[in-house]
Amino acid sequence: MREIVLDTETTGMDPAEGDKLVEIGCVELVNHIPTGRTYHQYINPERDVPAEAVAVHGLTTEHLKNEPTFGEIVGDFLDFLGEDSKLVIHNAEFDIKFINAELATFGFPAINNKRVIDTLMIARQKFPGSPANLDALCRRFNIDNSNRTLHGALLDSELLAEVYLELLGGRQRGLDIGEELKVKTAATSSNAPVTPKQDKKFREPRIFDISEEEKSAHAKMCAEDIKNALWLKDVS
Question: Where does residue 201 fall: left (phi above 0), alpha (psi -120 to 50 degrees), or beta otherwise?
């Protein structure tokens, strides 16, 4: 099962008012495990970025003016999303309305809401009455978000991927599943057999002395007491 954890940054709150995307970040999960594949792109919004938006994400008009427009990156973006991967988004309504507005501008069909998993809704159902923003959820799950001095689409997607897995019930870290996956991945990439490292303790062989009486009893049992013994049959 493939899922894409996604986040965006924008020039404002409403595409209907002329606001545009300025950054997209995505993280790929397969069977709830990050694969290491990501998508990240700054976007020239072809308009000024208001000071209040810069205060949130730090992306100025000057910084973005030489970046590609959405029309120039839309193909790569949709290719990364794929046709049926679920999209994991925090406060999905906000991001999806911006993405669909940009897609409509260039004649692409809108993203179907059935593909979307909204982690904000999951968090509110799981922890009613508690703060459910990304920072609060990172604190709840002891996820290190110390690098998040400003919003950033890729960083926020990476943090959200961790939050999402915790909302699903958490990962069983004590089972060393991650180490097993690393071994399998390394073997696959090198076409080598999977041979997990095992440390075995050396044990000296033990010798058990038996008495003459025990030897005699064993010989009698083999010769007389066991009926139809295989070792007494002629198999030639």
Answer: beta
